[in-house]
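wait is this the right file?? whatever heres the structure
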């Protein structure tokens, strides 16, 4: 449901979703923020391990975050009033699959050729991005330096086994339809037939 109370078509959400890098000063409503975060907890989760957590930063705590990290995106994102940091929790998966109905008692990571704690947390991050669109907001996923992970944990009391997969700035879009210098201005979307293969490559 859009912020104005109207229904939003899912295909429209998918089509409109893009990385927004400039934001107005208008705050994000508490109702919208909570809908975004509730949706983030509804993503797929191997074994229903639910190995995701989210740190929400606003106001002074957001300023502290930007003071202490190496930003790997345009500085204009710092105008967004909210940042959500999704964390992957590997131990939640290893613990879950040690339980009797799964029975992997050795807790070996070798049983996970693809680390689903990252996959599932990435899907949760996409739900944040899509719900922001449905709420009439803009958002951008961005990275920060791995060297800053320990600082983040210490500054905000994050448990040691929680690994950030990046951050998502959320706010009201002040961007032009596609930012100057953005990759979609210089690269075409790959043709459907080149990407999707039915039955054989």
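ok assuming it is, sequence goes like this
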């Amino acid at each position: 449901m859009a912020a104005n109370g109207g229904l939003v078509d899912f295909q429209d959400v998918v089509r409109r979703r893009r990385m927004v890098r400039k934001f107005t000063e208008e705050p994000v409503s508490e109702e919208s923020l909570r809908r975004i975060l509730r949706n983030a907890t509804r993503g797929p989760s191997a074994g229903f391990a639910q190995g995701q957590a989210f740190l929400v930063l606003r106001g002074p705590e957001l300023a502290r975050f930007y003071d202490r990290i190496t930003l790997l995106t345009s500085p204009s994102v710092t105008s967004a009033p909210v940042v959500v940091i999704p964390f992957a929790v590997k131990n939640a998966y290893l613990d879950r699959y040690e339980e009797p109905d799964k029975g992997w008692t050795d807790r070996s990571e070798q049983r996970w050729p693809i680390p689903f704690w990252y996959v599932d947390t990435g899907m949760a991050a996409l739900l944040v991005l899509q719900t922001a669109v449905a709420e009439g907001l803009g958002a951008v996923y961005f990275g920060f330096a791995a060297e800053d992970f320990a600082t983040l944990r210490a500054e905000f009391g994050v448990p040691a086994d929680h690994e950030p997969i990046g951050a998502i700035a959320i706010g009201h879009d002040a961007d032009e339809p596609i930012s100057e210098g953005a990759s979609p201005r210089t690269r075409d979307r790959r043709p459907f037939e080149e990407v999707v293969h039915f039955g054989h490559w």
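The CA atoms of residues 3 and 135 lie 5 Å apart. so i think its the right one actually
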